[in-house]
Amino acid sequence: MKRKGFTLIELLVVIAIIGLLSTLAVTALGGARKKARDARRLSDIKQIQTALEMYASDSGTYPITAGGITYTDIGVTGGSLVCLSSGGFGATGCANAYMAKIPAGPNTSEYYKYSAAAASTTYNIRYTLEQAVGDITEGMHYANPGGVANP
In the chain, N or C: fewer CB atoms in 10 Å? Predict the structure, then answer.
């Protein structure tokens, strides 16, 4: 009498192979997600820098933060300043804005930090990368009028 079907060992081997392949796929996607979030962070920072350069072109200085050197949270999620107009950063919608909505970081409750002293010709935007992107290493970095690069 011939039996048709799979043995228990054959089924367990197939299940183990599928489990191994799905583990590898999830691991590979985790790195891609980090890379995508970091690419978004760098894009956000460059957009903010463009708005700051337009502001400085019109006013001669960069917008100042309360207390001068202290960092202020910026961004629509969790940040206290969400837009940039001719009057500087604002907590609510700005008229004639250089940037109507300052982007927040890609993670939940992530935002960027901005600092500039009174009558300043420079600024710092603090942000963190999860992994290296090009020649920029992972970790905390500062963007300034010179660009986005390693500290």
Answer: N
Tell me whether residue 20 is in a domain: no
Range of the domain at 133: 33-148
In a domain, 133, yes or no: yes
Torsion, CA 137, CA 140, CA 146, CA 147, rounded to 10:
60
The torsion angles phi and psi of 10, rounded to 5 degrees, stand at -60, -40
Q: What is the mean pLDDT of residues 67-80?
A: 64
Residues ≥6 apart with Cβ < 8 Å to 33? none
**In this structure, is residue 15 part of a structural domain?**
no
Does a structural domain hold residue 13? no
pTM for this model (two decimals): 0.76
**Using an 8 Å Cβ cutoff, are 34 and 131 in contact?**
yes
Rounded Cα–Cα distance for residues 63 and 125 (Å)? 12
